[in-house]
Specification:
The protein is mainly α. The protein has one domain (about 5-105). Helix content is about 50%, strand content about 10%. The chain contains 5 helices and 2 strands; from the N terminus they run E-E-H-H-H-H-H. Strands 1-2 form a two-stranded antiparallel ribbon. It starts with 11 loop residues before the first strand and ends in a 5-residue tail after the last helix. This is Tail assembly chaperone.
C-alpha cells in the first residue's frame, strides 16, 4: 500500500438517543452527496442536500437501513445527526449555522 492508503476514511461513533452508532464517512469516490451540499446556493437546497448527505452516510454505515427507517428518524435528532455527519467529513459549522441549515432558512 502506498502513502495514499493512510488517508482512508475512519469511522466515528456517535450517540443519538440511547443508542451508539458508528458512522462511516464518504470517500472521494462517493463524493456526490457532499459536492451537492457544497454547491447548493439556496438554504432550502442546502437543507435537502444535508439530509441527502445524512442518508447516504447512514446507508453506507448501515446498509440494511430501509427507506421507512430513515424517514422515521425523529426530527429531534436532526441537528445532532447533521453536526456529526459534518464533523465526520471535516466540515466545521457553528450551532447557529447548523440550525439555519437544518431549518432551510435564507440568511441575511
Amino acid at each position: 500500500m502506498s502513502k495514499i492508503g493512510s488517508l482512508a476514511t475512519e469511522p466515528k461513533v456517535i450517540k443519538l438517543g440511547n443508542e451508539e452508532f458508528t458512522l462511516i464517512p464518504l470517500t472521494l469516490g462517493e463524493r456526490k452527496a457532499l459536492v451537492k451540499l457544497m454547491d447548493s446556493e439556496k438554504k432550502s437546497e442546502q437543507t435537502e442536500a444535508a439530509i441527502d448527505l445524512m442518508k447516504t452516510v447512514l446507508k453506507k454505515s448501515y446498509p440494511d437501513m430501509t427507506e421507512d427507517e430513515f424517514n422515521g428518524i425523529s426530527i429531534k435528532y436532526l441537528n445532532d445527526l447533521g453536526k456529526a455527519v459534518m464533523e465526520l467529513h471535516g466540515i466545521e459549522v457553528s450551532e447557529a449555522e447548523l440550525k439555519k441549515l437544518m431549518a432551510g432558512k435564507e440568511s441575511g
